[in-house]
Amino acid sequence: MELYDYQWEVIEPALEGKNIIIWLPTGAGKTRAALYVAQRHLELKRNAKVAMIVNKVHLVQQHYSKEFYPRLQDKYKVIAISGDTDEKSFFANFVKGHDVIICTAQILENALCSKSEERRVELTDFTLLIIDECHHTHKDGVYNKLMEGYTEKKLRQDKNLPQILGLTASPGTGNASTLEKAIDHILQICANLDTVRIMSAQTQRHDLEAKSRQPKKQYDLTTQRAQDPFGLKLKEIMGAVHEYLDATDFPASEFGTQVYEQKIVELEKEGAVESNRRKRTCALHLRKYNDALLTHDTVRMRDALHLLETFYQMERLVKDDPIDRFLSRLFDENRARLLELSEDARFENPKLEKLEECLREQFQFATQSRGIIFTRTRQSAHSLHKWIDGKPSLKELGLKSAPLTGAGFSNQSKHMTQHEQQEVIELFRKGKLNLLISTSVAEEGLDIPECNIVVRYGLMTNEISMVQARGRARAVDSCYSVLAMGGSKEIRREQTNELLEKLMKQAIEHVQRMPEKEYEKKIKEVQKESLIIRKVKQDKKDQLKKTCLSGDARFYCRHCGEAVCHGSDFRTVEASHHVNINSNFKLYYQVSSMPVQIERKMIDWTPGGQIRCNCGQEWGIEMIYKAVTLPIISIKNFVVETPGSRKPYKQWKGVPFSVEEFDYSEYCLDMFPHLLVDMDD
Question: N or C of the chain: less Cβ packing under 10 Å?
């Protein structure tokens, strides 16, 4: 296996068995360097076992098929395990029978925490742990949960822990605004990963620069629409909703902004807590109009209108009360005018004109060009794809585009399956597609060919995303474009990111120059402090669960406000899925006839239909667990009343009472008492 000089430089301490972070730009061969370390480790270490963990499912198969399996298959047993494979059910068995395991961090974390002897693994089962995109090892992320267990064992003098090798293109600054705070952030990442050094190309920097091209950066600025009757019409309708709601303390100048969205989210919460259906329903509709304004600002007027039309079609199907009828009628009364305005080319989005200009400049004379447009939402990715696909002037250039979005389920827009993602990437790699319109899913890790142009289309993200996206433009004379309105907050954020990137480099260089003893002392201090903070947080969580008895917690439908169950009706399956075991609960909901499609393969259960309150509010899905049907409930769809409060919760972990684990045998005997008689016979 041949490596470049700068790759040899950064892996040197790892070849000696030391824990390090490799910091190299996107496309500079971090994975290949890690593969070489793994190969040497397997050759030289007795009873060696390597795990490479990733933070996204699609990266499992990518690292397996592109790097590890082709290089190691002749001598070693290599396996890829992710949430959509059957192998995850037998993870512990496959760990025992293989030399190299490539998996998602969550699967490894689940196995480490499993109470089942058959499914449980230990960190000490591995001798080398490679952590891809290791800058995510912070706060409550799954990487950090893994490493918290590691550092606790290390502080208890456990000698059999695996060697750690972290890979990153950008550790970031952790929202720091000073060099001191940025240094603290880098030291925290190093402490979380228990590394002795963060390695980058220094003596071989020229070799890296020669092989790692940087694109030309340009700001493509646009102006506001000279006239915007479509946007004004949307705001007029929103004003009418506010009048109906008798809420006039929301200035129209905030409509179509993130600030307004935050306020309207709070208004919806108030409505849910107060069982004020008018306030809650109006807030939900206002948020959709706000989404339409944001879409209108990003893509076409017709895309904004389509978003609203889809929303109201669904609302009519599942909800029907006087408030919903009023709001639907208000939209219907204005739809014809909105449609008329959306078809008037004079008022179209100037950002699209500028985007067409950028694409024409790149693709007009370069038939082999490839590009990525990064946009904020799945909705805008699909809308931009439709616009490009329906634009004759762009079709003439030979543009063959496709959207590439996340695989996580969302109520807001259609998600892509893992298979669909892989299909799009493969077509792009083979040249059958030459333009991706992507959300942040394409920023990190994906094995995507060198691009000639990368466009950041009206984005506001951090310096890590900027560095990752820019790293996709690696072809000769490539271009990195920031397309936004002149003087906008998006432009200001990009300029701030440039400063933060410089700050990050200064912080890393400072940490690299620290004397060895000083560095070691600081890392131990940070680790001990982090351990204390974790213990305090855990103690607070434990105390929270004792705030009230589960039987004292009452659940109300978030939409209609009807009381439907108590906290004592719930149990957890696999320590994560909250199911209601009260047989009377089914009186309050309806179940869709079609099973919910979940791409991941679940252990011991399959999904049934979607569950909705009799009022139409979504509640969750059915779980068919060992032939028993149970309703899985999403707590965000309810308001929970306890002796001390009445409020909605985003996640189950926030509730002030504990929930017992589901006992399958006990449940079956309670539900089917004749089974006990049969067993006695």
Answer: C
Pairing verdict, β 638-642 and 645-648: antiparallel
- Are 160 and 134 within 8 A, CB to CB? no
Of residues 316 and 130, more confidently modeled: 130
- Region 546-566: mean pLDDT is 96
pLDDT digits (tens, 9 = 90+) for 77-129: 999 998 766 666 789 999 999 999 999 999 999 999 988 877 899 999 999 99
Give the pairing of strands 50-54 and 128-131. Answer: parallel
How far the first Cα of the chain sits from its last, in Å, is: 68
- Look at residues 435, 441, 468 and name the one whose alpha carbon lies nearest to residue 453: 435
Burial 255-275 (b: 16+ CB within 10 A, else e): bbeeebbebbeebbbebbbeb
At residue 590, the 3 state secondary structure works out as strand
Residues 420-439 have pLDDT tens digits of: 888 998 899 889 999 999 99
Q: Is-contact 281 326, C-beta < 8 A? A: no
Q: What are phi and psi of 445, to 5 degrees?
A: 80, -35
pTM over 0.85: yes
Q: Please state the φ and ψ torsions of residue 629, each to the nearest 5 degrees.
A: -95, 125
Q: What is the mean pLDDT of the chain?
A: 92
Q: CA-to-CA distance for 306 and 311, rounded, in angstroms?
A: 8
Beta bridge partners of 155: none
Confidence of residue 577 (pLDDT cuts 50, 70, 90): very high
Task: Please give the domain boundaries of the chain with CATH numbers for all domains.
Answer: 5-212 (3.40.50.300), 216-223+349-509 (3.40.50.300), 229-347 (1.20.1320.30), 550-680 (2.170.150.30)
- What are the start-end ranges of the H helices in 45-163? 57-63, 69-72, 91-97, 105-113, 142-155
Report the 3 state secondary structure along 628-679: EEEEEECHHHEEEEECCEEEECCCHHHCCCCCCECCHHHHHHHHCCHHHHHH
With bands split at pLDDT 50, 70 and 90, how would you rate the model's confidence at 410?
A: low
Q: Taking the C-alpha atoms of 469, 471, 472 and 476 in order, what is their torsion angle to the nearest 10 degrees?
A: 140
Q: How far is CA 390 from CA 262, 361, 371, 387, 577, in A?
A: 34, 19, 18, 5, 44
What is the C-alpha separation between 169 and 245, in angstroms, rounded?
49
Q: State the DSSP string of 235-300.
A: HHHHHHHHHHHT---S-GGGTTSHHHHHHHHHHHHHHHHTT-HHHHHHHHHHHHHHHHHHHHHHS-
- How are strands ordered across the β-sheet holding 589-595? 570-573, 577-580, 628-633, 618-625, 605-613, 589-595
Sign of CA dihedral 20, 21, 24, 30: positive
Nearest to 286 by CA among 313, 310, 316, 262: 262
Give pLDDT, residue 677.
56
Q: Are 123 and 112 in contact (CB under 8 A)?
A: yes
Which pair of structure tokens corresponds to residue 575? 């320590």
CA dist 133 and 167 (Å) reads 5
Lowest-pLDDT range of 326-335, 488-497, 558-567, 596-605: 596-605
- Is the Cβ–Cβ distance between 379 and 310 less than 8 Å? no
CA dihedral (578, 580, 586, 588) in degrees, to 10, reads -70
Whole-angstrom distance, CA of residue 140 vs CA of residue 160:
25
Rounded distance between C-alpha atoms, residue 379 and residue 326, angstroms: 27
Tell me how crowded residue 46 is: count the other CB atoms within 10 A of its CB: 5
* Rounded Cα distance, 429 and 435, in Å: 11
